[in-house]
Structures are given as C-alpha cells and as structure tokens.
Design a protein that fits this description.
Elements (H helix, E strand, L loop, with lengths): L5 H6 L6 H17 L14 E2 L10 E5 L5 E3 L2 E3 L1 H14 L5 E6 L5 H13 L4 E4 L2 E2 L3
Parallel strand pairs: 1-7, 2-5, 5-6
Antiparallel strand pairs: 2-3, 3-4
Helix pairs in contact: 3-4
C-alpha cells in the first residue's frame, strides 16, 4: 500500500462545488424569469362551446361579461357607460394593443356583448375575439 506524501496531496485535483452551485442557481433564475405563466382571471364565466375553438392569443385585452351582465376589464369591474372612457385610457397606456378578447357567459344577454363590441369598434379595436370552449363530443 502506497501512502501519499505531502507534495502529492497538494498536487491532487480538488473538486470545488461553489462554481457548480452558482451555475445551477443562475439557471434557476433564468428559467424563472423567462417562463410564461398562464393566468386565468378570477371572474366566474361559463363560456359557450364551439367546434372551431382555438387557443387565445398572447397579448390581448380581456373583457369579461358575467351572467348577471357585470363587465370586467382586466379583472376590474367597469360599468357599461364608463367602458369607452376606460378603454381609451387603456389604449393610451398600451399603444401596441390590437386584440380584444370578449369572454361572455353563455347565459348573458346578447345585447350587452354587442354593446361591448360596439364600444371596441368605436375606438378602432377591430380585432375582436369571442371566447369559447371546445365543444364536448
């Protein structure tokens, strides 16, 4: 059995874990910052079903209309008579906004959704999407 002397012990390669831990933590931070999370609003909406449902676009303004006719813009309640003013302010702060997703409950009165669409059209928001869920077969 060969014993190592002091010079041989100093020349041995030592594995340092500190740089490895640094790299792992940087990777964790990178993935946490670059991951997109799907956010569902807390407004209880039961959208109608459609055979031609497609996934949502990435950046769009969401306007929800509940069964009772209450209107929410980005999870904040807005009255119909204030909707145009609120949308105009939102457009000024988000000039890249081109798409509006209208999430209406399947039991909501059709006229309220049409009024919301009319307000969007009056502010040149022409890309309107009616939110639906895939039809169950």
């Amino acid at each position: 059995m060969k014993f190592l002397n002091e010079d041989e012990l100093k020349s041995m390669v030592m594995f340092n874990l500190t740089p490895l831990i640094d790299v792992v933590l940087l990777l964790i931070i990178f993935f946490m910052l670059t991951t997109t999370f799907i956010y569902q609003s807390g407004i209880n909406i039961n959208p109608p079903q459609a055979k031609s449902s497609v996934p949502e676009v990435k950046r769009a303004l969401v306007i929800s209309v509940t069964e009772s006719g209450r209107i929410f813009m980005e999870n904040r309640e807005v009255y119909l008579y204030d909707l145009e003013k609120e949308l105009a302010v939102f457009i000024k702060t988000h000039p890249d906004l081109k798409t509006v997703i209208i999430k209406g409950d399947k039991e909501v009165k059709y006229g309220i959704v049409v009024k919301v669409m009319d307000v969007c059209n009056s502010l040149n928001l022409k890309d309107l999407i009616i939110s639906t869920t895939p039809e169950q077969e």
